[in-house]
Design a protein that fits this description.
The complex is a heterodimer of chains A (112) and B (115). With 112 residues, chain A is mainly beta. Chain A has no helices and eleven strands. Chain A has strands at residues 4-5, 10-14, 19-25, 32-38, 45-51, 56-59, 62-67, 72-77, 86-93, 101-102, 106-111. In chain A, strands 2, 4, 5, 9, 10 and 11 form a six-stranded mixed β-sheet that branches. A five-stranded antiparallel β-sheet of chain A has the order 1-3-8-7-6, with no helix packed on it. In chain A, a hairpin with a 2-residue loop joins strand 6 (56-59) and strand 7. Chain B has strands spanning 5-7, 10-13, 19-24, 31-37, 44-50, 53-57, 64-68, 74-78, 87-94, 105-106, 110-114. In chain B, a hairpin with a 2-residue loop joins strand 5 (44-50) and strand 6. Chain B has 115 residues and is mainly β. In chain B, strands 2, 4, 5, 6, 9, 10 and 11 form a seven-stranded mixed β-sheet that branches. Chain B has a four-stranded antiparallel β-sheet with strand order 1-3-8-7, with no helix packed on it. The chains are: A mainly beta (112), B mainly beta (115). The A-B interface holds A 4, 6, 9, 32, 34, 36, 41-46, 49, 89, 93, 95, 98-105 and B 4, 33, 35, 40-45, 48, 55-56, 58, 90, 92, 101-109.
Chain lengths: 112, 115
């Protein structure tokens, strides 16, 4: 049972344009969501997070939107840069819960 | 500050053998998590250790086991290896009190290949 789904295995975007990565979850108990970025031969690194009490969180070029009624979150990268090319994992957890559930990841290609 | 370290980087075993993977968390972190990333799949939660005890495990058979040592480093043991155990095994750590973002800090992983 995949509780966190990233339905797009890959996404290709032109440099300077917006990248939108999507994530859906099924468990309404999740109240904290994170995005991680992974380069080849490295472990994932934390990028940005959002609590369920918010619907938007912004950090520089990265913005995460949360739609609780649709159980959907998205990561927007504006403007996209070639260095953003990586695999992005969406993750969900419950405050005080035991584990974080990760999606399958979306590979982003930003073309120069 | 040193990050999470894992050893070995690569490990090649044959079916039926045992594999031992090691992880050293960031200094001051008491929790260690193990994940499996098989080709084309996301991070599948394996095990969580905190303060030397197993706190939770994912949906994996008992031949996946581990332990956490008094210095908070951890081992993951996989017995009776099967071909489908071939994957990248990632270790992550976090402090006892959740950081501002409640994030986990990952090591570079161990690539296990079972022939």
């Amino acid at each position: 049972d995949q509780q966190v789904k990233q339905n797009s295995p890959s996404l290709s975007v032109q440099e300077g344009r917006i990248s939108i990565l999507n994530c859906d979850y099924t468990n309404s108990m999740f109240d904290y969501f994170l995005w991680y970025k992974k380069y080849p031969a490295e472990g994932p690194t934390f990028l940005i997070s959002i609590s369920s009490i918010k619907d938007k969180n912004e950090d520089g070029r990265f913005t995460v939107f949360l739609n609780k009624s649709a159980k959907h979150l998205s990561l927007h990268i504006v403007p996209s840069q070639p260095g953003d090319s990586a695999v992005y994992f969406c993750a969900a957890s419950k405050t005080g819960g035991f584990k974080t559930i990760f999606g399958a990841g979306t590979r982003l290609f930003v073309k120069a | 500050e040193a990050g999470v370290t894992q050893s070995p980087t690569h490990l090649i075993k044959t079916r039926g053998q045992q594999a031992t993977l090691r992880c050293s968390p960031i200094s001051g972190h008491t929790s260690v998590y193990w994940y499996q990333q098989a080709l084309g799949l996301g991070l599948q939660f394996l095990l969580w250790y905190d303060e030397g005890e197993e706190r939770n495990r994912g949906n994996f058979p008992p031949r996946f086991s581990g332990r956490q040592f008094p210095n908070y480093s951890s081992e993951l043991n996989v017995n009776a290896l099967e071909l489908e155990d071939s994957a990248l095994y990632l270790c992550a750590s976090s402090p006892r009190l959740a950081g501002r973002h409640n994030e986990q800090f990952f090591g570079p992983g161990t690539r296990l290949t079972v022939l």
